Amino acid sequence: MALPSLLLTLILVTLTEPNLPNVILAISLSRWPGITRLVRAQVLSVREREFVTAARSVGVPAHLLMTRHLLPNVTAPIIVSASFGVASAILAEASLSFLGLGVRPPTPTWGEMLNSAQSISILSGMPWFWIPPGLMVAICVLSINFVGDGLRDAFDPRMRVEEK
């Protein structure tokens, strides 16, 4: 957690052959500690709440305590974090490909498309080379973040309104 995840991803991709499975593995290995830490913190926080203590004192079995009390209260932050993680992974892959350390051609990636449009003549004279991939990265990341936010609202038990 002390190293920036993009730097760790760069190191892992540099040590291995830059193909699609290795890039996915490098991005995954550099991002899992944050999600693991969030899950642990959420479970420890919810475990100490009054309704869990009350359920435990009544004698609710551990598997029901986990599925009925802990899991519903922990899923919302995990879903939001996972959606941000997916968006972050897309940005990381585009960054790696832009730097020339990502997936090699002929596999098309948005970062590779942006990398191929670096010359001044392309930047000024042919904007259709770099505007669509840049916009698609931004739109894709924003869309995933909005979906994650909507899923959080749908799954968060504290956001539900009781019907009478």
Structure description:
The protein has helices at 5-15, 20-47, 50-58, 62-99, 110-115, 120-125, 131-155. By secondary structure, the chain is mostly helical. The chain has one domain: MetI-like (MetI-like fold). Helix 4 packs antiparallel against helix 7 (131-155). The longest helix is centred in the middle third of the chain and has 38 residues, at 62-99. The termini are far apart.
Q: Stretches where pLDDT falls below 50 for ≥5 residues?
A: none
What is the radius of gyration?
21 Å
Assign the CATH topology.
MetI-like fold
**Structural class estimated from helices and strands:** mainly alpha
Distance between the termini: 47 Å
Which CATH architecture?
A: Orthogonal Bundle
Short description:
The chain has 164 residues and is an all-alpha fold. It contains seven helices and no strands. It has helices at residues 5-15, 20-47, 50-58, 62-99, 110-115, 120-125, 131-155.
Which terms summarize this structure?
164 residues, mainly alpha, MetI-like fold, 75% helix, 0% strand
Write the layout of secondary structure elements.
Layout: H1 5-15, H2 20-47, H3 50-58, H4 62-99, H5 110-115, H6 120-125, H7 131-155
Helix pairs in contact: 1-2, 2-4, 3-4, 4-7
